[in-house]
Amino acid sequence: MIQHTGPTATRRPRALITGAAGFAGSHLAEYLVARGDVDVHGILRPDDGVHNVRHLGERLHIHRLDLRDEAQVQAVVRAVEPDLLFHLAAQASVGHSWAQPQETLIGNITMQLHLLQAVVAQGLSPRILVVGSADEYGRVNAADLPIDECTPLRPMNPYAVSKIAQDMLGYQYHLSHGLHVVRVRPFNHIGPRQSTGFVVPDFAQQVARIEAGLQHPVVRVGDLSARRDFTDVRDMVRAYVLALEYGTPGAVYNIGSARSHSIREILEALLRLCTCPVRVEVDAARLRPSDVREAVCDCRRFQRDTGWEPTIALEQSLRDVLDDWRARVRA
Q1: Which residues lie closer than 8 Å to 54 by C-beta, 6 or more apart?
Q2: Does the pTM of the predicted model rise above 0.90?
Q3: 189 touches 134 (CB < 8 A)
Q4: Where are the alpha helices (DSSP H) in 214-313?
Q5: Tens digits of residue pLDDT in 73-99
Q6: Element (H, E) at 103
Q7: How far is CA 106 from CA 67, 175, 181, in A?
Q8: Cα(9)–Cα(154) distance, integer angstroms
Q9: What are the structural domains, with CATH classification, of the chain?
């Protein structure tokens, strides 16, 4: 782990995670707490629940604030003086970005801008992870596969544009202020705690409700033919830490499994885990024709620089997602 080199070098290094109660953020906090070599601080919105991080107790130091409030961000960065800054907080729903494009664009850019400005204003030099998205690549063609970091960015929704802006803003602060910024573009990640609105938890929730007798034994689906690159969130957050330990400042890295699976394969794997007979029906409301038939990640640059490899099999990820939803339904 990174050693603290500031004026109080005798203290333990500090990691600050934005969006620490979210899907990926909670797994990152859990991973860093388990490592035990940094003090872990997390930023939560004032109204965020803590169910994803309650088990961490006092090992996660929670700071509640609105990242869109510059004064609040300045105060928490001044108080924590992070050595590692993982910026995961964002409005991450593509659907919501269509409904509220202004909120998505201004919010995602402003939150990151306030963090970077606070670091500069306080004269700090943390290692900063800017989390972009594979959505930045947008409309990819068969000739673009596998998608590497030089693939053209062809964004197809406001969320993707906001992530490109965050990506470039991080790069600009590296060039203009000499900040140690590493940018990553993660492909689809799955695992326990992911909310609905994404294909795997949407399927798993339906299966869990059917098993519990709360839904007719019918799983409603949309287009099952698209192919995506899925990585377990626990492998993904390990990659985030390696990015700050070994990544080149200013560089951008794709992170993914380097293989694609059809949505049909994902559904069939979950149905094999189901404890009762289930029918599958196409729901016209869920049909969202995609211009991207397949996305698969070329992560050789990241693997070369960090040595990272995914370790959790897709089948295990899906089992864990379903077990998570079974527990939620019982609760």
Answers
A1: none
A2: yes
A3: no
A4: 233-246, 263-273, 300-306
A5: 999 999 999 999 999 999 999 989 999
A6: helix 101-121
A7: 12, 23, 21
A8: 44
A9: 14-190+232-256+301-306 (3.40.50.720), 199-228+260-296+312-330 (3.90.25.10)
